[in-house]
Design a protein that fits this description.
The complex is a heterodimer of chains A (295) and B (317). With 295 residues, chain A is an all-alpha fold. Chain A is built from twelve helices and no strands. The longest helix of chain A is centred in the middle third of the chain and has 37 residues. The relative contact order of chain A is 0.17. The mean pLDDT of chain A is 84. Chain B starts with a helix and ends in a 7-residue tail after the last helix. Classes of the chains: A mainly alpha (295), B mainly alpha (317).
């Protein structure tokens, strides 16, 4: 969340040459930490996609006698959960729903928030004022509270969880989109395009989008880490994903009662959430500095 | 200054109205008839209609909102479905406990984060800077509810040094600042302090590095001022922003404490929210969120005014 509006606005004014993306890529590759984070994140995504081939057992198949087997039990390399299901398999399968719940809201909010922010920034005037004041209201809630309020009212469920997280991320993305667009709109070439008689839609499509989507996207990637923590947090509270699905936040919730019996087993799903969140965070940091020509 | 404060307060009024509208809407976006959560499933049609009239559900939404807002302004947020007690009483009993936890966590987080950030910004690109940066990245990326569980595992389950849950003898009502109670505060407060610590460290590091690059610092050095003297100037310049960040973080913690309070069964507003969600006690959910959001809005206002008082340059427009 360290990306300030100013620094993002600055990105928008960067001159672009033909080799822009190539130079971004070169700079990114030089950043060892970001590359490592990127590899970990890619690994997690691959793990989610290929879960059925990687996981040694069925994540829903329990065994009463194997309940809460410790880490290192034969046939259960990471132990078994409170219903005797293989932990390793559940952690691998858990990547599917956990990543889905963490990434999708940011993606939807990126589309809706950008549209709102770019429209408000380009049109300016009272449209801008009204839009931004309405967003200020949602901004007036701490993000955790708003997510919990909406999903608390809607009740548990994957769709309700996605919906509430999307609502949480639209205002910050729209704000960044608005400020970037406002700064681009003041540039001379937009004036020139206007003077040459280009329509608004054409100006936005040909001249504004290319300059603002990059910075907004970088900001959105920095939200994935927050979204992962929040999404798993909702399931941890009994909102969001419901049993018997494998999802890291939910697994943390159901294993919490086993904390005195198998403490370290109970902590395992959190390691996955932490790993995902920190790798996306560092990846986003690397992306931001790679796209910032100033450095 | 006075006109600035006035303008800022006037700006806050529509925000507060909007916030209460969102809270009002919460009950109405929840699936099913709002009465279902209040009445037993076998209630007669007559009773249903009676209750509809009492709660005003038979009127239009704007009418309902104004009625609800009017009652809320008089301090009536309805009754909890689970306990039957007024929501206001429940919330204000819990707010005190949340404040104890959030303020302690903010103080710890701000002190440590400020220290890390300051050292990192002052000795930029040294190993100490890299360490502080790493700590702050971990601080913002760690799922704090999991960190709470790990703390319980280490200090309560394995070492048996500190109690795992609750707020000590007397439960939620009688908090005393003695060891018997404070030992219950240590784990949740430290867990919670990690959230502002990372953010404060990042902000202070950037601030200090930025200030040190400004011309007046070279001017002070050229004048022959020693490092300690320069330091005082840096602190003076960084303080308003750092304090503003601290104020906002306190607000986030008040509203975002639900997960940590759930892990530690700390009897605050977050724990109350958790119960409201679990029992689908919508009036309690709505009331708690309204109070917490209002706290946040007012805190934002205070931070803005305080920051401007400390740094008059911000008074613009």
């Amino acid at each position: 969340m360290a990306v300030t509006t100013e620094s993002v606005a600055h990105l928008a004014t960067i001159e672009k040459s033909q080799g822009y993306w190539r130079s971004v890529w070169t700079r990114f590759l030089r950043d060892k930490v970001a590359v490592c984070a990127g590899l970990v994140a890619a690994g997690l995504v691959l793990m989610a996609i290929f879960a059925p081939w990687i996981a040694p057992a069925d994540p829903l198949d329990g065994s009463m006698i194997k309940r809460l087997s410790p880490i290192g039990t034969e046939g259960y390399p990471l132990g078994a959960d409170e219903l005797g299901r293989d932990m390793l398999s559940r952690l691998i399968y858990g990547a599917r729903l956990s990543l889905f719940m963490g990434v999708v809201p940011v993606l939807i909010a990126f589309i809706i928030g950008s549209a709102i922010g770019i429209a408000a920034g380009y049109l300016g005037g009272w449209v801008n004022t009204v839009t931004m004041r309405v967003l200020d209201v949602l901004y007036a809630f701490p993000s955790v509270l708003l997510a919990i309020a909406i999903s608390g009212a809607l009740g548990a469920g994957i769709l309700n969880g996605l919906l509430s997280l999307t609502v949480v991320f639209i205002p910050p993305i729209a704000r960044v989109a608005e400020s970037v667009t406002t700064s681009v709109r003041k540039l001379e070439y937009i004036e020139a395009a206007l003077a040459s008689g280009a329509s608004s839609i054409r100006i936005v499509r040909d001249h504004v989008l290319g300059n603002v989507l990059g910075p907004i996207f970088v900001y959105a990637t920095s939200l994935i880490s927050v979204s992962m923590i929040l999404a798993a947090g909702l399931s941890f509270l009994g909102l969001g994903v419901s049993p018997p699905n494998a999802e890291w936040g939910l697994m943390l919730n159901t294993l919490r009662n086993a904390i005195y019996v198998q403490p370290w087993l109970a902590a395992l799903p959190g390691v996955m959430i932490f790993l995902t969140s920190i790798s996306f965070n560092m990846l986003s940091d690397g992306l931001r500095s790679a796209m910032d020509v100033k450095q | 200054m006075l006109s600035f404060i006035l303008r800022r307060i006037i700006y806050t009024v529509p925000i507060m109205l909007g916030v209460s509208l969102v809270c009002f809407a919460l009950v109405h976006i929840s699936p099913g008839d709002p009465l279902v959560s209040i009445l037993p499933p076998d209630a007669s049609v007559e009773l249903q209609e009676q209750m509809m009239a009492i709660y005003g559900f038979d009127r239009s939404y704007p009418e309902q909102f104004l009625r609800w807002l009017g009652l809320a302004l008089q301090g009536d947020l309805g009754n909890s479905i689970a306990t039957g007690r007024p929501v206001v009483t429940e919330v204000f009993n819990a707010v005190g406990n949340t404040l104890i936890l959030a303020v302690t966590a903010t103080i710890i987080g701000f002190t440590l984060g400020g220290l890390f950030g300051f050292v990192a910004g002052y000795f930029r690109d040294s190993w100490i800077d890299k360490l502080a940066t790493a700590i702050s990245v971990v601080g913002v990326s760690v799922p704090h509810y999991w960190l709470g569980m790990v703390m319980v595992i280490i200090f309560s389950v394995e070492l048996r040094w500190l109690p795992a849950t609750g707020a000590g003898p007397g439960g939620s009502s009688q908090w005393v600042w003695d060891w018997e109670h404070m030992q219950y505060l240590i784990l949740p407060a430290i867990t919670m302090s990690v959230i502002p610590m990372g953010i404060v460290a990042r902000t202070v590091r950037a601030l200090v590095a930025d200030i040190l690059q400004q011309e007046f610092v070279s001017g002070l050095r050229a004048k022959g001022l020693l490092d300690r003297g320069v330091l005082a100037h840096v602190i003076k310049n960084a303080a308003p922003t750092a304090l503003a960040v601290m104020g906002l973080q306190l607000g986030y913690l008040l509203g975002g404490s639900i997960l940590i309070e759930t892990v530690f069964s700390w009897p605050g507003t977050g724990f109350l929210l958790g119960q409201a969600i679990f029992q689908r006690d919508l009036p309690l959910l709505q009331g708690t969120i309204l109070v917490l959001a209002m706290f946040f809005v007012i805190l934002n206002l205070l931070v803005d005014v305080g920051q401007t008082a400390l740094d008059p340059r911000l008074q613009r427009g």
